[in-house]
Amino acid sequence: MPDWPRRPHHYRFRSVWLLPAPPAVVYAVLADAEAYPRWWPQVREVTPLDDRSGTARFRSLLPYDLRVVAAERVRDPGAGVLEIAMRGDLAGWARWTVGPAPGGSRAVFDQEVEVRKPLLRRFALVGRPLFTANHALMMRSGRRGLVAWLAAAERI
Predict the structure, then answer these.
(1) In what side-by-side order are the strands of the sheet with 53-58?
(2) How far apart (Å, rounded) are the C-alpha atoms in residues 130 and 15?
């Protein structure tokens, strides 16, 4: 049985992106968090606080912003892993794992968070399907944006 009926504010997500670029290139783009708003439309802004942390604001189809403070936990280019801890409207962690795949790379995004934004907590049970769909749309858009970004970088 999934844990969400007992913990309605808790989410686990996994997205797998197949990308037409070498793992080292994909990893380098994903490691540059400040550039995310240039290729991922729902990442509205990223502001560094220091060399290992920053703030980010996200907004997808639903009319609300999520704001987090992200702190780097793992940066391992050899293993292809980037991981952050988050606090703010979402509390938890997110991880990219990048490796080779036929024709390029496979980037796996794993995330486990608890929603802390009061409005979203209030609508946790009835809103869950919408929140989950909103996340899926954001991830699809991010993949499309990254593919276009990688293609443009290849032409330069």
Answers:
(1) 10-19, 104-115, 90-101, 81-88, 66-76, 53-58, 43-50
(2) 17
**Distance, first Cα to last Cα, the chain:** 50
Using a cut of 0.70, tell me whether the model's pTM lies above it. Answer: yes
- Beta strand pairing call for 66-76 and 81-88: antiparallel
Per-residue pLDDT, 8: 86
The residues facing 11 across adjacent strands are: 113
User: In this predicted structure, what is the pLDDT of residue 153?
Assistant: 83
DSSP-derived secondary structure letter, 77: T
CB 114 within 8 Å of CB 10: yes
Q: What does the DSSP assignment read for 114-152?
A: EE--HHHHHTHHHHHHHHHHHHHHHHHHHHHHHHHHHHH
* Amino acid letter for position 87: R
pLDDT < 50 stretches in the chain: 1, 4
